[in-house]
Amino acid sequence: MKRFRSFLFLCMFAIILAACSDTGDSDTTASSDEGAGEGGTIKVGVLASLTGALESYGKQTQRGFELGLEYATEGTMEVEGKKIEVIWEDTETKPEVAVQKATKLLEDDGVDFLVGSSSSGDTLAVLPLAEEYEKIMIVEPAVADSITGSEFNEFIFRTARNSSQDAYAAAAAIAKEGVKIATFAPDYSFGWDGVSAFKTAAEKLGAEIVLEEFADPAATDFTSNIQKIVDAKPDYLFVVWAGANSPWQQISDMKLQEKGIKISTGAPDIIALQLMGPLVGMEGFSVYYHTLPNNEINDWMVEEHKKRYNNEVPDLFTPGGFSAAVAMVEALKKSGGDADGNTLIPLMEGMSFDTPKGTMTFREEDHQALQPMYSIRLETVEGVDYPVPVLIRELSPEETEPPVMN
């Protein structure tokens, strides 16, 4: 009996050892798989104005981001063995809604990245959440300088150009010693930062800013604003604007150019270009128009966009969405699929990546993407029902590099 009990005890001990050994092997295998970064899903939460005044911008970003993911993953929608899942949220161009949607993405959906948004106001409201949750946020297409300036945190990387890059390109076109310039912009962060940056760049070139006029961003009547500009008697009016309610028709109706005031601005999206017929011959700058870049990635994007969207060409913010997707995929390739924000920061600082606009580089100091811009003239082109931005010359990333403001 004693021998039987001893035998039974030894058997049970052997079973326990085997079980422990199996558990240990399973844990080791799981840890190895996790370390290799294989399997699983990368979740991306994209904030955009999919309704409201900036709806067209949000949809351009959406199309570009989807095309960019396809291009960067060669159609697999995977990186380093992990599937990419994209969750879209409409901010309605309301900062409080943007915060609600971003919180939902981070807490309920458990996203690994944030991307967005169409409005600088929405984006500024969300920036602290990226830092709080330690998630990389790729800013596109919001341009306020403060995003990578006074409100910067290390989890923010921006593929969109900022207001100062616009300003340096714009000032190069019209500012010089003795020239008097008035500015006109919407009365919120996008407009304030745009005017401030332009003023700095223009005054460095010797120009004088004689009036800074701001209008309600939701306004449709700009008569009183434009009259103040006429009364200031500038040589040039430099306009910073975004949204469907543009002032171009009223600027034309009030005959500023006949009064000796030349107009200069950034070439906007196609909807706004359709209202700029009276400005044919104007020289300014462009962030993007589909015929300006000369590279294979842009050719691919234009061709695929036309195939999928009823022969429509990519618009102003389509390449930005594309670039944000490429930047994310390239960063994940560098990390072996690890989406941890703290791991990605040093890998993304100084990272260069190819986009429809050419090569972009995240500047180490403030994570602003340095990128090409375009000096253009608006011209009439046969078969096109709006003034077309025609290239004068490409402005290098070094020419439009903004100051570090963080």
Automatic annotation (TrEMBL):
Superkingdom of origin: Bacteria
UniProt organism field: Lysinibacillus odysseyi 34hs-1 = NBRC 100172
PANTHER family: LEUCINE-SPECIFIC-BINDING PROTEIN (PTHR30483), PERIPLASMIC BINDING PROTEIN OF ABC TRANSPORTER FOR NATURAL AMINO ACIDS (PTHR30483:SF6)
Annotated Leucine-binding protein domain residues: 41-379
Signal peptide: 1-21
Homology family: Belongs to the leucine-binding protein family.
Protein name: ABC transporter permease
Coiled coil segments of this chain: none
UniProt keywords, alphabetically: Signal
